[in-house]
Amino acid sequence: MEAAVASLATAASTSPCAGTQPVPVDGDSVTGPVLVEAACNGRPVDMPAEALIDDRHSSDDLARMADYLRVRRPAGRARDAGGDSRVIRGTTLVETNLATSEVAAAERRLLDVMQVEPDGPARWTRPAALAHRPTRLWREPANRFPQNVFLVETGGATFVGRKLMSSFSAAGRLPEPHCSRIVASHLLGRLRSLHTDEGGLSLYYHPLRDAEKRGLLARLAAEPLADIVFPFVSLVHGRERYSPPAGWSLDPDRAAGLAIGEQHLRDFSVAMVRQHGAVDPLFYDPACSTGEFLRTLKEAFPRSVTIGQNLSQEMVDYTRPRVDQADPRGAVSPRIADGSADYVFCRFLNSEVVTSRQASALLARLSATVKPGGYLVVFGHTPVLVQASEILACGDFRLVRTLGATEDRSAVFQYYVARRESTGDGHAYPLTSSAGIHGSWH
């Protein structure tokens, strides 16, 4: 997967549409929070509003997307109170830096249009056959959600997708618009190439039909080593977004939202530890948040020891009744000794929590706390910033999983598991193999 990402860096400088130039926008790049999905077929974008949507959608869907894009405004009005208005070959898009509530509303409308019902026929189509389909374009502006664009390899091809609003958020149960789950609606198609510029991302792909999206999701759910990579980060004035230096504050609504958004991660983690046959493990969470994750593990494994720490004193105070030990300190200073933990859960090396550079440094430090035969586990609510090669570079680790799935296989998510094989004297620690968790276990 990482080799594919590297090769795409070269492909990113060209586009299959309009020669080697990005889609022209009055001599500038699209910078507003606007999504464009368009049929290219090797020519510049020049089409009516209806052509912006895959033809699988109904007329009602088309109307909703036309409203979402605010197309067909009179081109003579260059600006209005709504923001900067530009024309893409006769199709006008109103751009504006949306407030948080407006972004959520726009994401909700996008979810309505792109929705794929989880129940229905599933079909796997050979990637070579997809290459004969028309090329489509997904334009993700830099001030929207480039960090939610993902790539995954399977069947000898690279597929591209974009996380949409979580069903939890759409139902009003989650304060953030997205969670870690990837469902069929998020899959776009087989990637042809991508282009980046100061205004955002242009993703060119051969589209999947609904049944094929369900088929691809089912294939990924059965491949524990399918590596989902989020290659782009969220930038504010050219710098990565991250959490406050003193950690997050906490209120009951936020605690409840965090618990709901991570239920599938807790369930999967309990199933994994149970599969390993652990009896009295030491669980270490170096950024334990509310302590709900460690509390769930303690409940499932009463003889375990649960140790957490957090930058926020407020979080630690909330956590202490739920865990065996909790300290207010940063993860760069582990609470436990090196080589002492059976499981180290890194749930914070993620987008908008730390920067990519911080994530790499923290991973290297925390991996040392895993005992021989123990597990380093990396996942989180937002996209994981470290890649599989970085985990392996920590030394003496074997990667045994990169992806998890919900029990009903309706969603997959990043879930890296690496086992420390060295005993410290150069001898390999035996690696067990057994039946899988919601799929094969390697």
Walk me through what this model shows:
This protein folds into two domains: 231 residues, no CATH class; 169 residues, Rossmann fold (3-Layer(aba) Sandwich), CATH 3.40.50.150. Helix content is 26%, strand content 24%. 42% of the residues are buried. The strands form four sheets. Strands 1-5-9-8-7-6-10 form a seven-stranded antiparallel sheet. A seven-stranded mixed sheet has the order 15-14-13-16-17-19-18, sandwiched between helices. About 23% of the residues have low confidence. The protein is of the alpha+beta class.
Summarize the structure.
With 442 residues, this protein is of the alpha+beta class. It has helices at 2-11, 59-69, 100-114, 127-130, 167-170, 210-221, 252-261, 263-276, 292-300, 313-319, 356-367, 388-392; strands at 36-39, 79-80, 83-88, 91-95, 136-141, 149-154, 157-162, 187-197, 200-207, 228-229, 235-236, 239-240, 282-285, 305-310, 325-328, 341-346, 370-378, 397-405, 412-420. The chain is built from 12 helices and 19 strands.
